Amino acid sequence: MNKPKQSPLGLKVMSAGFLTLLQDAGRNQVMHQGLANGGAMDRHAWAWANRLLGNAYNTPTLEITFGGLQLESQVATRIAITGAKVPLTVNGKPQNLWSSIVLAPGDQVHLGAPLAGLRSYLAVTGGFNVSQNLGASCATLMREGTGGQNEDGQKVAAGDLLPCKALTSHALNQQAFKVPASRVSDYQAPLLLDVILGAQVDRFPAPSLEKFFNKAYQISPQTDRMGARLDGPALDVIGERLISEGISLGAIQVTADGQPIILLNDRQTIGGYPKLGAVTPRSLDALAQRLPGSEVRFNAVSLYQAQLAEREFLQFFKGS
């Protein structure tokens, strides 16, 4: 006689806050299909949440924008929450961010509104048991209707159950870990973004480049996961609009009004505006945590410098 199939257990969502999404490292090799990469906006904070729990690099987490998430655990497990500085409590008792936390069945987790930063990352030991397709990823892209818990691009909602495994008492009793203070990001520090100049930089006359690298810009309220729109000195562009071509992560395109847009994880796959260069992946982590109105400045670096920083990041978190 077949035993009845048991319902999965995990973390029950009591309140999802403003915007909570399942995210991992994003999709690889899908842009030729017209699909965006998606993935965690702040890879530094996301990767630390998984590392604190011993999870593999691409393990799915929750990306929580503007806080407000409330969960109830149905299992004994460990979680880690990194990223934005938010008030964090378990059963009403304050807990530390950037460290591993033990949960028992029935425990209530609450993230308040950010005091600094924008996005938080919640990882659970072993990760959430969700499908990773389309480039071996569960990255949620609401515009495309792909990824997420049900592979339909929907954000996490109240009432959802996020399946995860229960830990043994031995695993729960293992040493807790915390991120060294020197590796915790300061989301209130002045924002200086490293930029690699691109092949189309000759379309920008010297006065435009001087303005871009010596004047401050502000992040526009129109900013989202597709791109960070900036307000500041308008840049002149030489020549006509280009034939549409593929767009890389961090590309800085300048629209007809002369204002730069930094293209982010959920960007469109092609575009025809001239591109001054690209913000480096490590600088995009810092950008992902800044609110509209924040001041942004730029610093030119070599491709070699950017590659070294990315290699160091991947070797530390991924071992490759």
Low-confidence stretches: none
Portion in beta strands: 25-35%
Distance between the termini: 48 Å
Q: What is the share of helical residues?
A: 10-25%
Q: Strand sequence of the main sheet, in spatial order?
A: 12-19-16-17-14-13-20
**Rg (C-alpha, Å):** 21 Å
Can you describe what's shown?
The protein is an alpha+beta fold. It folds into 2 domains: 10-183, no CATH class; 191-317, Cyclophilin-like (Cyclophilin). Helices cover 14% and strands 30% of the residues. The protein contains 5 helices and 20 strands. The protein has helices at 43-52, 169-172, 206-214, 281-287, 303-317, and strands at residues 10-16, 19-23, 61-65, 69-73, 77-85, 88-90, 93-94, 100-103, 108-111, 116-124, 161-163, 191-197, 217-219, 227-231, 245-246, 251-254, 260-263, 270-271, 275-279, 295-301. It has a 7-stranded mixed beta barrel with strand order 12-19-16-17-14-13-20. Strands 7-6-9-4-1-11 form a 6-stranded antiparallel sheet, with no helix packed on it. The chain is elongated, with a radius of gyration of 21 Å. Residues 32-317 form the Carboxyltransferase domain. Keywords: ATP-binding, Hydrolase, Nucleotide-binding. This is Carboxyltransferase domain-containing protein. InterPro entries: CT_A_B, Cyclophilin-like_dom_sf, PxpC.
